[in-house]
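Re-run with default settings, no changes from the original entry. Doing this only to confirm the output is reproducible before filing.
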Amino acid sequence: MTARELLTAAHEGMTPAEIAEHALKMADELEALARMITSQNAIVTSVCTILRTQTNTIRTINAMHLAGRKREARHALAAVAATPDLEPMPVATITMEWSAAMFSPADAQERH
């Protein structure tokens, strides 16, 4: 079943007030998911910036070497090699499968 179908089925036995309360709880879930995605996007952006910087540095060192500036290239390479390793970054694993439990108002209440 699709998420829409599961949500429709969950709302069938509810009063308008229960549906409204459930909608607010689902909105809280969406906001939490959006915060997590935003955090992951920031990590990816940071890694891309580091990779781009390192790639540009390697190209500069290569250009120095090709231009016969070998001593300067060796010193630049030594500086890059001395850069500390990056600490592992936390990356959330999202495994989502639509299920009736996801749309159960009781389950949503237990998580908050």
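The CA atoms of residues 18 and 64 lie 69 Å apart. The chain is about 70% helix and 0% strand.
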